[in-house]
Amino acid sequence: MRAAHTEAQVRDAEAALASTLADGALMQRAATGLAYAVLGLLGGAYGRRVVLLVGSGANGGDALHAGALLARRGVAVEAVLLSEAVHAEGLAALRAAGGRDRGWDGTGPRRLPDVVVDGIVGIGGRPGLKPDAAAALAAYAPEDDTGARPVQVVAVDVPSGVEVDTGRLPDGAHVRADLTVTFGTHKVAHLVDPASPACGAVHLVDIGLGPHLPPADVVALQADDVAALLPRPGRAAHKYTRGVVGVRAGSGRYPGAGLLAVAGAASGLAGMVRYVGDPTVLDRVREAHPEVVGVGRVQSWTVGSGGDNRAGAALRAALADEVPLVVDAEALRHLDAPVRAEDGSSVPAVLTPHAGELASLLGVERADVEADQLAYARRAAQRYDTVVLLKGPHSLVAHPDGRVRVNTTGPSWLATAGAGDVLAGLVGALLATGLDPFDAAAVGSWLHGAAATYASQGGPIVASDVADAVGEVVRSLLA
Ligand SMILES: NC(=O)C1=CN([C@@H]2O[C@H](COP(=O)(O)OP(=O)(O)OC[C@H]3O[C@@H](n4cnc5c(N)ncnc54)[C@H](OP(=O)(O)O)[C@@H]3O)[C@@H](O)[C@H]2O)[C@@H](O)CC1
Ligand SMILES: [K+]
């Protein structure tokens, strides 16, 4: 499990740990990890050139101490001091090691360095960059029109300027890193979009914080977590004990969506799949999936993918069964908040909106949801009193109690028509096996992304490729 903590949680843990250590020991651990990560990126020391952009806080102190270690290894290190007052011990260490420093006077370098280390601000930073910091960054790590750079940027702890606890980006400038070296635990911004792409690859340095940290509210499941949650048929299993998933999706207008939701549901995780809906879709489902049957009892429903104006009726019929259900696409438009069966009892559900659909659910603008995904996913989970899976490059699975699981699997090629229909079917199958909605949504989106990566191999895919690859991913997890 990759855990992401907030600034306050990190500071409390740091205080508890620091009280057991000599002064400055934690910063030394952080700076050493940072320096070795930079050396790895440089591929050597002699002849390499590193510039440190140094702000007023301990984040700049990390950069200066790492710079001292790099200078002792033979790297040419120059610190650009962006504040009158920088970390005094760090600066003394850099100077003692033979590193140079200068203030920022608006003039850039004669020759660009190999790596720029962003020690402008860390978890103590306010959003955005001050004009001097933005100007120094542009001078030492210039970007062309496509955003390409001749210099690699390593962020200390977090890319300066991003909102650490929310994953939001500021209105103005922020650092865009190739590598972020963080300490003790991940921060929310490392996992949550739109900030997470600004982090580049994230490298975690263990500084001993672990025992002092509380359980994280924001986590990303890893392969071993997913393997532990996967349903496995017991020796005495038969198709009904493994769970039956029903699909009410697709329409005369969008028959393919019904087929794809069935393909996701028919990944082999549940014991049986039923399709209930448009007769023309049913004929095509039977052709493509001869094992799929019609009306009967189910342990879960997937409703709405590719639906038409009958999606509301399909949702009501599914809710009446009072089994767990996935509510997707068109069916989302017919939901009441909170999600309840007709008799008022609560029904375990997973809502699977994309940003536009989540915006409609909450009566806000799509752009607002995209800019503040964590907050809006949590708000929807609370308002609808159910699990919400907000689809995107890093999908979020939000529980009404505030916990969030971020999905980090899947290539950009997964942004393809019908991928969401496959996901809805897959999560429905996991619900049928007995996983609770929070687990089913998180495991389903992890498998969906991993299957896309497996199918893609770096190239283009279509949605049915993803469904076809789920079995292979499950096999490798079980191996
Ligand atoms: N916690 C841990 O376990 C460990 C933490 N460690 C390290 O400490 C870091 C946190 O250090 P920190 O608390 O000193 O704050 P930090 O982020 O350096 O800067 C805050 C200062 O910057 C300023 N400032 C604010 N916003 C600004 C802006 N937009 N643009 C420009 N300036 C801005 C503001 O000053 P002001 O402008 O208000 O005068 C404020 O004083 C952490 O990220 C990690 O790297 C490791 O060493 C060891 C283990
Ligand atoms: K930083």
Contiguous helical run count: 17
Question: What is the CATH architecture descriptor of the largest domain?
Answer: 3-Layer(aba) Sandwich
**Level-1 CATH class name of the largest domain:** Alpha Beta
SS class:
alpha/beta
Helix content: 25-40%
Taking the alpha carbons of the first and last residues, their distance comes to 19 Å
Number of strands: 18
Ligand kinds: ligand NPW, potassium ion
How would you describe the shape? elongated
Largest sheet: 11 strands, mixed
Strand order of the largest sheet: 8-1-10-18-17-16-15-14-13-11-12
Mean of all residue-level pLDDT scores: 97
Strand content: 15-25%
The value of Rg in angstroms is: 25 Å
Q: CATH homologous superfamily of the largest domain?
A: Ribokinase
Low-confidence stretches: none
Protein name: Bifunctional NAD(P)H-hydrate repair enzyme
Domain YjeF N-terminal: 1-215
EC number: 4.2.1.136, 5.1.99.6
Binding site for K(+): 59, 118, 160
